[in-house]
Fold this protein.
Amino acid sequence: MAGRTLENLRARYNTAAQDTPFGNNRGPGARMRGPGGRPGRGAQATGRPKDARGTIARVFSYLKRYKLRLVFVVICLLLNTGASMAGGYLLRPILNHIADFDISAAERVAYLLRMLIVLAAAYMTSVVAAFLQYRLMVEVSQGAVERIRRDLFAKLQKLPLKFFDGHSNGEIMSRFTNDVDNIGMMLDNSMVAMISGSVTLIGMLTMMLITNIWLTLITVVFIPLFMRLTMGIMSRSRRYFKAQQAALGAVNGYIEETVAGQKVVKVFGREEICETEFGRLNDDLRQKQIGALFFGGIMGPIMGNTAKVSYSLTAGIGGLLCLFGGFDVGGLAIFVNYASQFARPINELSQQVNTVLSALAGAERVFQIMDESPEEPDKPTAVAPVIRGDVALEDVSFGYEPGKTILKHISLYAHPGQKIAFVGSTGAGKTTVTNLLSRFYDIESGRITIDGIEIHNIKRDVLRQNIAMVLQDTHLFTGTILENIRYGRLDATDEEVIQAAKTASAHGFIMRLADGYNTRIDGDGANLSQGQRQLLNIARAALSKAPILILDEATSSVDTRTERMIERGMDHLMADRTTFVIAHRLSTVRNANAIMVLENGEIIERGDHDDLLAQKGRYYELYTGKRELS
Ligand SMILES: Nc1ncnc2c1ncn2[C@@H]1O[C@H](COP(=O)(O)OP(=O)(O)O)[C@@H](O)[C@H]1O
Ligand SMILES: [Mg+2]
């Protein structure tokens, strides 16, 4: 809702700002986007590139493969601009001929008809060239954008989890949407507009000089004035527009917050305070909006009228030149025509600069991700053993950020088929231990071995194939339930998938769904309950034949009855695997071979259930309810 309002305003602001004889986008090559296009991008500058030249070079490297087509684009562009300019110039002899009373009327009509055909040919050439140029350029730019998107996505797949810790999903998404989109926009629109703007400018200037030097001087003298005026109004309206966007964001944010928190507002009787606060924000928005819309709106009239002054001056002096200076009427007609359009390419160029700069800034952000260092490649000596599941940690210390140790001197071992449990408060480091096993992060000191081999000597994908995980935050992909479970092992048969679902106690609820195993899951399983999603994740792990299993609060979102059911299935699942289980409910970990009580990254107690109760330490307190897990 907020987004749409913003887009509307943006579109509105932009139409207002561009609806002038100077500030429009109607030059050859600079096409307006149709409905559903990208309105108002120009006003939406997002930063400045740090290394514009390098970034341009890198964007252009994506165009290399389209060299031939680009040559054609430039040819078409020159043809387009040249033909349309020639067409304009032809008016001169035509008008002069018509106004020449020494020639017979019949001859003049014949000439006119001949010239009309030439004119038609010129404009047809221009149209066809524009058509080809646009078609080719869109092909080129979208091809480049596709490759950029592909490279970016491929890179994301190779980045270590550390990268994702430091970048929110929204941020990464906006690289793919806004930034890549802006690059495309720059390639297929701004670039062409800039080239054609420059060509038009040079062409027009030449034509004007050829037509009349003195009149050209008058026009050129006016240009700086126009530029100052345009820039002044544009920068002011941009300032107001920015302020308006901020104010709009504040209003929308406040509405959203109040609506979402309506219960709390009512409970604490904050209605009136909310209204006052909203009134303040609303008033601020009104003021900013008046400024933005006003300056957006007066731009057109001011520019139009200033242009008319120069236009009239040129026409007046040109008229005098015709009468007394031997200047021809046809020359005057086309000159006035040029003069009235002259500021357009200049404005177009200055407008594109903003778009290009912000697109380059986006491109820089995209390339920055592409340049992130990927997960370290496997050592050449890395092996791919058949893993039984004998896991040992020896004096392992680790921190996510340098200088901030999370795990301190952790040592433990698990023989194949054993079940090791971790208990401890939130933030104690339980999940971190399991992250290290699958090398989501690499340790700083100590050793982690599987079957006696240090894990960084095992090929990473082999290591990960041998570890199945059920995490607290479940994740499902778009597709059917069957496909989602099969994610655990791609070559599993349907029967095996169903068996796995039965093991995870998921079969019952799946069968109650309308399409059973063929039910489609959309948007990360929004159509399922959190508990059901977790059951599917467990089924996925059950399907995998990995000898090592990690259950990180896997049953925290299901009710106690379901949990007991799953546990029965899980006993089955865990029977011949080395299992690391993290659970909030202590009943789940009772039968573990060893229970580690973690606190602040250290193992403060260890032993089986009976040992730990006998120790009468932290576990005892937790178990007997003298202390709560926080
Ligand atoms: N990706 C991460 N980056 C930085 N710090 C993290 C990250 N994940 C966890 N931590 C920190 O490490 C500590 C242990 O977290 P974690 O292992 O998730 O605890 P637990 O699973 O026992 O609740 C916490 O202080 C947490 O803030
Ligand atoms: Mg955790």
User: Anything to note?
Assistant: Residues 1-30+213-326 form a domain with the ABC transporter transmembrane region fold fold (CATH 1.20.1560.10). The pocket of adenosine-5'-diphosphate (ligand 1) is lined by residues 165, 400, 406, 424, 426-432 (CB under 6 Å).
